[in-house]
């Protein structure tokens, strides 16, 4: 019984000492909390002032967002550093910076991919190789750019799916920006029979493509006889149209339909593939009389 009471007394004394220690440090903790509150308010004010100032300079949106985020992180780092010195007076700012430096090395090895994406995001925002709304392709992933963050970039595929790409992937691999220009060149192949007049076929195809609204009239339509195909002379048909995926599909549809219609109206054959079979031994063919006898 006495041992139980002694244990309870020890526990009570420990709790009381903890309570006294907490009360003695409460003013310091309150001051540290006030510092953090002031840091939060200062961040809000600086964010609004800096954003308004940078917009007056007419900087790119990506640069404005990057500078705001860097200032946000810097202010919070200073505020946390001051609060830590208040709560732990024995730690000087130099000691805290040393601890932070050593910790950052360990964290850097543990979260290498995260920091790699972070640095890649900063470089992408600074260089701005593509913008919001651009249609890009990288490593078999393609879609419209919806958001560029410090760590990742969100793109929207043409089928409606959203893909989140790590910024390191976009920074280290080739990225095709398909909507960098308002116009893109499109090429299709069109074959006509060997017995047709090549010059006439070229002229018919040219007129069929050149008259379409989706074809850019400022750039020349190009028709070249490209190769001797298996059953046709193949023409390379090239024109310029809008750079968005929808504009390209619509223009290709119009061109194919117009060329087919024009060739049919001109009586120019678009041949089916022909096959020539060669046999080692002569084949015996049945005459009409043999066929009738066999039928009987």
Describe the structure.
This protein folds into 3 domains: 2-110, Helix Hairpins (Orthogonal Bundle); 126-177, SH3 type barrels (Roll); 183-265, Alpha-Beta Plaits (2-Layer Sandwich), CATH 3.30.70.100. It has 8 helices and 8 strands. It has helices spanning 2-56, 61-87, 93-110, 112-127, 167-172, 198-210, 245-265, 288-295; strands spanning 135-138, 141-148, 152-156, 162-166, 176-177, 183-192, 222-228, 233-242. Strands 4-3-2-1-5 form a 5-stranded antiparallel β-sheet. A 3-stranded antiparallel β-sheet has the order 6-8-7. The termini are far apart. The relative contact order is 0.07.
Distance between the termini: 122 Å
Q: How many structural units, i.e. domains?
A: 3
- Categorize the overall geometry: elongated
State the secondary-structure class.
alpha+beta
Low-pLDDT runs: none
Question: Which sequence of strands runs across the widest sheet?
Answer: 4-3-2-1-5
Major β-sheet annotation: 5 strands, antiparallel
The CATH architecture of the largest domain would be Orthogonal Bundle
Radius of gyration: 37 Å
- Count of discrete alpha- or pi-helical segments spanning 4 or more residues: 8
Query: What name is given to the CATH topology of the largest domain?
Result: Helix Hairpins
Order of helices and strands: HHHHEEEEHEEHEEHH
**What is the beta-strand fraction?**
15-25%
Helical content (DSSP H or I, runs of 4+): 55-70%
Mean pLDDT figure: 81
By DSSP, the count of extended strands is 8
CATH class term of the largest domain: Mainly Alpha
